[in-house]
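Record type: ASSEMBLY
Status: queued
Input:
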Amino acid sequence: MNSVQKNDLRLLVLGVVLFAVIEGAMEGGFIGSFWKLNIILIGINIILSASLNLINGYTGQFSLGHAGFMAVGAYVAVILTTNFHLPLIAGMVGGGLAAAALGFLIGLPTLRLNGDYLAIATLGLGEIIRIVIMNIQYVGGAAGFSGIPHLTTFPWVFATMLVTLFAIKNFVNSNHGRACIAIRENEIAAAAMGVNTTKYKVMAFTIGAAFAGVAGALFAHCFYIISPGSFTFMQSFNYLIMVVLGGLGSLTGSIAGAFVVTALSAALADWPEFRMIIYALALIFLMFYRPQGLFGYVELTKLAPFSRLRALKGGREE
Amino acid sequence: MDFGSLLVQQLINGVSLGSIYALIALGYTMVYGIIKLINFAHGDIYMVGAYVGFFAITTLGWGIFPALLVSMAVTGLLGMVVERLAYKPLRHAPRISVLITAIGVSFFLEYATMYFVTPTPRTFPDVFSSAGITVGGFVVNGQQLLSFAITLVLMVILTYIVQKTKIGKAMRAVSFDTETAQLMGIDADRVISITFGIGSALAAAGGVLVGVYYNSIDPLMGIMPGLKAFVAAVLGGIGVIPGAMAGGLILGVVESLVSGFLSSTFRDAAAFAILILVLLFRPAGIFGKNTQEKV
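Status: finished
Output:
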């Protein structure tokens, strides 16, 4: 077992312990139903922000269409579970695959664009997805899809979250991930070094879309109804904010960002009129004083409890 | 109504809607041209303009033209304040930071407005006779004439400012090459501030006209037109002023045709579809020049 696997094992143990604590608190009745729902939402948002981070933070492709992929995943999943009575896992896989397929189809032409143009094109595509769904009567149109079974539970969300985080972590640390980071740092230089930039950009985009679809599936089964109004570009902004707040190119940051944003908006739920004002000001001041986010390019595994291990390994740097 | 006359009627609607998009798009394109920022808050500036106009008309009891001027002045000032407080400190920051800040400013304007004026939509007073005139069997109503005429006047003024005055020359210079312009003694910060001011004032005019045209304003009204105006700016070639005007008109006409002949629910999708087609096949836009990427 090499040191990387040891590190993974530690993280896994940490995750399981965390899960046991939260699940215990939920079962023991220490957490009310409001916060129960919000803990589930935090888990889902971690999946979304981590997958968006793969596209925006690691590969440097500014995507603002994440809510669209989430919507596709959510709708495909609810069709499978509600109309075909399949289990949740089938919905998640189906939703993920559908979102991945769409991500691939959309990514192939649009990823030729860069910077602001890509941002605005993906934003537009996300909105087109939403408007198309709104016009499909089979899934309820603008009124939404109702009668969805309540299948999302905390263990499901937590397990999916762990799988997502490990999958993205391992992808980023693989050859493919290195290629993606090279593209982020300098696309022309990466291409000159023989990186097939289109291939890796589309790959990152497709993987990100797939996990967004899975998260959409989980999200849809939290409530009894979903409607196209839940997947506007404001949602995409929300995930972008989580990613940037946590730190671009840091999975720890994505977790922290999703946690802070979701918990903050839940805590401020009693003052809806101030919630967004505080949120907006927090965002602006964060950009002034810490533009790299809370954990800019730093991972939890680089921090204190893990650093001893790194010293033993001889300080292997990323 | 047969096909031909429906077409002409939709064209008339489209041109008047498009002239409002063009007004908003001008602000986007000028700001983008000068500091390469997609000012996501621009749509909300337009919303604030509509509210200032609304209160000038209802609370102060002014007519449409003084209200329009006051709205443009106040909102222009607001645009400059936003630039000074939120964007100027980030002049040398990464682009994504400025973009996130713009999203933050957008949220702030929306929800601060919502806090002060409540989220309920307001009915814009009927200040301009909607009695239409009939030209060869087609109805052009008063609001459509008004928005088209005001847009035309503002565009002429803007073109004059940009092409003939000293500040316009400075704006073009800064947009072309900021550093060289500064070496030539142009105060770039001041030029950027004035650009924001002019862009915001144009958006405010658009906001008041939309209020007159649709009779209803609300604090979130700026989101969609803001995005559409950005589409218009990209369509015409971002950073190019005549492009924004043309892009706005084209977008307005296409939207009217789609909602007239297909379904109004696809109206928004049409705008974004145009955007994606333009980006894929002619990213520089109709009037834009293709620039080669340099290493």
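Annotation: Residues 9 and 138 of chain B are 6 Å apart (CA to CA).
Annotation: Chain B touches chain A through 46 residues (CB under 8 Å).
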